[in-house]
Amino acid sequence: MRISVLGGEIGRRGLFGSLPKPAVALLGLSTAGAFILWLGVGGMSGAAAGFALLGLTYALVRPWSQRRSIAEQWMWAFRWRIRRRRGETQYTAPAQIREMEPDSWPLPLWDRPIPLGRVEPLDLAGTGWESMFILHHHNPGERAYLSVVMEVQGQASGLRTDRAYDSASIQYGVLLAQLGKAGSYIRGLQQLNRIVPHDPAPHRAFMSGRVSRRGGLEDIIASYEDLIDLTAVSAEQHRNYLIARIPLTGEFFEESQSYGEGVAGWAGLVHEELARMADLAVRAELTRPRVLGEQRTCAMLRSLQDPRWPIDQHEGVRWENCWQSYRTERDRQIVNDRWHTRTAVLPRAGIAPAKLGPRWLAPLLTAVNPSVIRTLSVRMEFIPDRIARARAVVDVAQDGASLQGADQKGQVGDGTDEVMLSASARRLHDLAPGSGHQGVDWSMAISVTASDPAELRRACMRVANEAAQSALTDLDWQDTQHDVAVLSTYPLARGMAVA
């Protein structure tokens, strides 16, 4: 059986270990302040004041037994208050604004949700690519990129051998490796799985409207009703999507000119890249790929926000009217005063460093019982093999030195150094020249939706229980940031920093 180890990166490397970069910068400033105190005050008093400043800063920025440090928690709370004061934690859809009296309008009014940033569809009218829907993202501080949504049929389930799953897993790895090569303009991929409880109403309507009128079928009808009752809590509808992320680089602009001028050339090159990705997806048993146009993409966005809207009810849905009204509480986002959503991300140490097979996420995807509305998003950013190999060499050297230094000092570790060295050594082995593998950075986010706060708490508990069965040992629920974090589970290729 084909297995892999996705965990193992359970800590940060380097001189400062688990401290994030802002904390290291703050420690550097406090070191400079301590030095100034020592020079300015002088003597033991200055030295004591400097050491006290350093100790206090270190105590504030180090995440002791918690996921976040004290300083980080203060910053999150401060940012929450600022965002609420500015009105950025709520959004009123234009359709609802038109129905309100001007005196009751919430101020300020936003054209789009603030966390969405600067993103709009490309105007492809008259270019020959009007059927495509390409989003142009150009937010300050990041490279502009294009994103396109492709729907696929998920891999078949049921009575399949391990060899069949292994084959599909290998082909999916080939898909990622091909997209990660230097000649590919798709530098990132988002895999989105939308799961909603199956509605048994159409089956009951069929039984009552047609079958029940026939005589002599009473036992069959009663048996079918029992079957519906038995499977209602666990039957689910799964929708699967791949979202391509294409950064606007100099190479992209140069190549797009062979397909046309301006956005017409962009769309032509994007179409070519999507055709290649669709072929690779079919080989990985992700069948029936189709690129979604504006109405189907926006209907999907609307359904992700408000599950009352069927995901295939797309007539008349546009980019301008797909965004739903919401307000944000500390522990959830409330859409249209009806649907409550919480979002969690998988932290660095949130996945167990264990050997995992191709179906390692199956409990989270299919075994949540009773079923809950949830979205699982995985973002992958491809790294050329030479860059990934150089990073792996540095990591192996650091991990080996750390482990050797601990042995020379006679220190008894908790196993972290061994696990880190094993992870980096595996990456270096997998990235060996001629292997055909590329590097990848990835992140995972999960959103859970329910119709009331109590049901939402129970749904999150059920999801967390099945996540633990999927080797996900820790989920970081984004309290005070749910309206921002939920965007990572939308088909926008968001959710992680680009390498």
Q: What tags apply to this protein structure?
A:
about 500 residues, alpha+beta, 13-stranded antiparallel beta sheet, 15 helices, 13 strands, globular
How would the blueprint of this fold be written?
Elements: H1 21-41, H2 43-61, H3 70-86, E1 90-91, H4 94-98, E2 119-121, E3 135-137, E4 145-153, H5 162-179, E5 188-197, H6 201-209, H7 218-231, E6 236-247, H8 250-256, H9 262-283, E7 287-291, H10 294-305, E8 326-329, E9 332-335, E10 339-345, H11 362-366, E11 373-383, H12 385-409, H13 416-430, E12 439-450, H14 453-469, E13 476-477, H15 482-485
Antiparallel strand pairs: 1-8, 2-3, 3-4, 4-6, 4-7, 5-6, 5-11, 8-9, 9-10, 10-12, 10-13, 11-12
In brief:
This protein has 499 residues and is an alpha+beta fold.
| Rounded average pLDDT | 87
State the order of secondary-structure elements, H for helix, E for strand. HHHEHEEEHEHHEHHEHEEEHEHHEHEH
Largest sheet: 13 strands, antiparallel
In total, the number of strands is 13
Helix content: 40-55%
Description:
The protein is of the alpha+beta class and 499 residues long. It is built from 15 helices and 13 strands. Strands 1, 2, 3, 4, 5, 6, 7, 8, 9, 10, 11, 12 and 13 form a 13-stranded antiparallel beta sheet that branches. Strand 8 and strand 9 (332-335) form a beta hairpin. Helix 1 runs antiparallel to helix 2, helix 5 (162-179) runs antiparallel to helix 9 and helix 8 (250-256) packs across helix 9 (262-283).
